[in-house]
Write a structure and sequence with these properties.
The protein is of the alpha/beta class and 285 residues long. The chain has one domain: Alpha-Beta Barrel (TIM Barrel), CATH 3.20.20. It has nine helices and 13 strands. The strands form three sheets. A seven-stranded parallel sheet has the order 1-4-5-6-7-12-13. The chain has a four-stranded antiparallel sheet with strand order 2-3-11-8, with no helix packed on it. A two-stranded antiparallel sheet has the order 9-10. Strand 2 and strand 3 form a beta hairpin. The relative contact order is 0.15.
Length: 285
């Protein structure tokens, strides 16, 4: 899959990438009302990674339904809508508004965005709040519910257990890590929002550990997301316990990275005589 916020709405890349070869597209975070995002600058390259403070800039749910879902319904690739709110009620309203819309196959509940001032990660750091959001979304839609967790918690396995018990069908691990950069010339924080989310290869070993720990704690599927740049990276996540993976930051380097990762996994399976991917999910345990 493509990771939310790194592939737009899929439409932006559809002319240069054969999107229908993907397992799924996760669109950028969607809110009830349009959001302009944070002040510039909003991106900063770091060693082995990227800081972003986009701030959930998006067109809002009504424009998404009017402009994007009408395109998605003609695609063969499933599209998952990532949703974010500033209250439990907002998450529930988004889920209800998107329920049973042609072209949308599932919801990814973002309770882990580190660079907005209200909502997002604040829900993801409390087991009770995370469970409340999950239950509210679950009761508002018949679509599969994926909950995207923040890595900034003391016990990730406990958090995953809470959202699973609250009705999540799947868990995505994970979102970015809060970080910052300072411009030594201006002697000020580089990002307009000061803090941004760190993604890319720098976080891969940490997120891989999270997937490994959660696999032993829940029975629902896990999507691994964090620093995947190659088929080898993806295979590590699968062997740690991920049923599927998302590629994010790597698509900024090369938009077709997802397809290269997919081809690499297929090649590995042929070379190793693996008939079904399920044979290696969690095999490292």
């Amino acid at each position: 899959m493509t990771a939310s916020g790194t592939f737009g709405y899929g439409t932006e890349c559809s002319e240069i990438v054969d999107v229908e070869k993907l397992g799924a597209i996760v669109c950028k975070g969607t809110t009830l009302e349009p959001r302009p995002g944070n002040h510039q600058p909003r991106l900063c390259e770091t060693p082995s990674g990227l800081l972003n403070s986009i701030g959930l800039q998006n067109i809002g749910v009504e424009a998404l339904l009017r402009e994007k879902s009408v395109i998605w319904k003609n695609w063969k690739v499933p599209v998952i809508v990532n949703i974010a709110g500033e209250s439990v009620d907002e998450y529930a309203k988004l889920a209800a508004r998107l329920d049973d819309v042609p072209g949308i196959c599932a919801l990814e509940v973002n309770i882990s965005c580190p660079n907005i001032r209200a909502g997002g990660m604040e829900f993801g750091k409390s087991t009770e709040a995370a469970a409340q959001v999950t239950a509210a979304v679950r009761s508002s839609t018949d679509m599969p519910v994926i909950v995207k967790l923040t890595p900034i918690v003391t016990d990730i396995a406990n958090m995953a257990t809470y959202v699973a018990e609250a009705g999540a069908d799947c868990i995505c691990l994970s979102n970015t890590f809060p970080g910052m950069a300072i411009d030594v010339t201006t002697q000020r924080p580089f990002l307009g929002n000061v803090v941004g989310g760190l993604s890319g290869p720098a976080i891969k070993p940490i997120v891989l550990r999270l997937v490994y720990e959660v696999f032993d704690a829940v029975t629902i599927p896990i999507i691994g997301c964090g620093g995947i740049m190659s088929a080898r990276d993806a295979l590590e996540f699968i062997m740690a316990g991920a049923t599927a993976i998302q590629v994010g930051t790597a698509t900024f380097v090369e938009p077709s990275t997802c397809l290269e990762v997919l081809a690499g996994i297929q090649s590995f399976m042929r070379d190793e005589g693996i008939a079904d991917l399920s044979q290696i999910i969690g095999v490292a345990h």
